[in-house]
Amino acid sequence: MKRTLILTIDIGNSQTAVGIYRDANVEASYRLTTNDKTTSDEIFFRLSDLTRHFGRRAKEFTHVGLSSVVPQLVRPWIKALDVYFNKPIQIVSSKNCLDLPIAYPRPASVGPDRLCNMIALRSMGLQNGIVVDMGTATTFDVLHNSGFAGGLIVPGISASMDTLTEKAAMLLPVSIKWTNKFVAKNTGDAMRAGILYGFLAQLDFLIKGIKKEIGIEDIPVIATGGWGKMLLKRTPLVRRYDPYLTLEGIRQVAINGNGFNNFDGEE
Q1: Which residues on neighbouring strands pair with residue 223, listed in sequence order?
Q2: Which of 12, 136, 218, 226 is most exposed, with minimal Cβ within 10 Å?
Q3: Which residues of 221-231 are buried (b: 16+ CB within 10 A; e: fewer)?
Q4: Which amino acids are annotated catalytic?
C-alpha cells in the first residue's frame, strides 16, 4: 500500500491547528494565531516555513484537508494551498463529510469542526459517543447510531473570563488555573474557582442530561480542544482526552472525501 503524507488544517476562531500525518500517525503539529485579515500570500509563506521546518517538500504531500469556522478565511487558505501544493484540497462541509447523517433541518449550518469530531469518533469504530470540544466555545456533540444527532454550544472557559473582565469594572484579567477551595479568599481565586468549578458543574449536568435524553448511560465521552486536558483529571465522566480528534476527522475527509467544494456556501 502506498504511504500517505497528509496536511490537515483546522481554522478556529482563536487558533489554527496544523497537523502533518504520515499515514494514520501524527508526525508534527503546530498552532498558529487565527487572523481573519490574513492574505493568501501570508499563508503561502507560513506553509513554506512549516513544511521546510518539518523537512518536507510540497510535492511529497499526497493529501490536503481543510476545516474552517471562519468563512472569510476559506478563500485565502484555498488559494495558498492550491498554489503551494498544486493538488485538490478537500474542504470539510455537510456535503463533504463521508456521508455522515446529520440530524439538522439545515445541515450546512453545522460547524465543520463539529462534523470532523463525529467523523473521527466513527473512524474509531464507535456508533455512539459524546465529544466535548473546549475551545473559544465549548461544544457538546453527540454521535448516535453512527450519525450526528446534534448537540449544544456554551461559552468557552477563556471567553467566559474575557466577558467577566470586560463587563465588570473592578475585575481584572487573571491566569486560569485550579484553586484548592471553592470559598476563595481573594478576587483572583474567586474568579478562577467560579469559572473552572462552574464549568465542571455545567459539564456534569449537561453530560448527564444528554445521556438521559438519548437513553444510553454508558456512552463514551471524549474531550478535545485547548482546555480539554486541564479538565480531564477533574471529572470521572470523560473517558479520555484526544488533542488531535478534529484533525483526525479532517484527515479522514482529506483521504476519502468526495471533493465537493462550494466556496460561496451551501443551500
Answers
A1: 132, 241
A2: 218
A3: bbbbbbbbebb
A4: 113
CATH 3.30.420.40: which residues of the chain? 5-91, 107-118+125-243
Is residue 169 very low, low, confident or very high in pLDDT (cuts 50, 70, 90)? confident
Give pLDDT tens digits for 51-96: 999 999 999 999 999 999 999 999 999 999 999 999 999 999 999 9
In the block, residue with C-alpha cell 465521552: 221
Domain covering 107-118+125-243, topology: Nucleotidyltransferase; domain 5 (3.30.420)
Identify the burial level of 63 via C-beta atoms within 10 angstroms of its C-beta, where 0-12 means exposed, 13-18 middle and 19 or more buried.
Answer: buried
> What per-residue confidence (pLDDT) applies to 262?
58
Q: What is the SS3 assignment for 55?
A: coil
Work out the angle at residue 204's Cα, subtended by the Cα atoms of residues 195 and 248, and round it to the nearest 5 degrees.
90
CATH superfamily, with its number, for domain 5-91 = ATPase, nucleotide binding domain (3.30.420.40)
What's the mean pLDDT when you consider all of the chain? 92
Distance CA 259, CA 244 (A): 23
Residue 1 has pLDDT above 80, yes or no: no
CA distance 253 to 88: 12
CA 77 to chain centre: 17
Residues 154, 132: Cα–Cα separation, whole Å: 11
